[in-house]
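Journal club side-thread
Mid-discussion, someone asked how the predicted structure for our own chain would compare to the paper's figures. Pasting it here so we can look after the session.
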Amino acid sequence: MVDSLDYIEMKIPAKPEYISVIRLTLSGIASRMGFAYEKIEDLKIATSEAITNAIQHAYKERTSGEIIIGFGIFHDRLEVMVGDKGKSFDLEKAKHEIGPYTENKDIEFLREGGLGLYLIESLMDEVRIQYKEGVMVFMTKYLEGEQVETDAQIVST
């Protein structure tokens, strides 16, 4: 039995005006799967943050770029992938520059640029980030229950 039921992939220009297209698509997919309103909002915010990070950081020195968004539809979860082929980064160095954060720490103390990663990790059940040639953010939201990891898992290839 194949674990994934369907996979949907979209490519958008690395421009903020296309984020709403992805949010609308994601809302439709998650609603059809049976996600509650609150979880759909979490998915939309986390995905928007990942796309915004790609727009702001991956292609900041170029006038154009492309972002790939994939939706892996499973019986028990939705996996969202946001990838770019832009400038990569060192996640551990970025986290160090942002400073430590926990769920109990006020977000007001986060430095500029740290809120996106904080939101993604807070709203999603699992987060993996792969960076080498560009950056790929893998986010998972389960239909039932909370299966939250404490930190993003770093995957470097």
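Post-session note: Residues 37-58 form the longest helix (22 residues).
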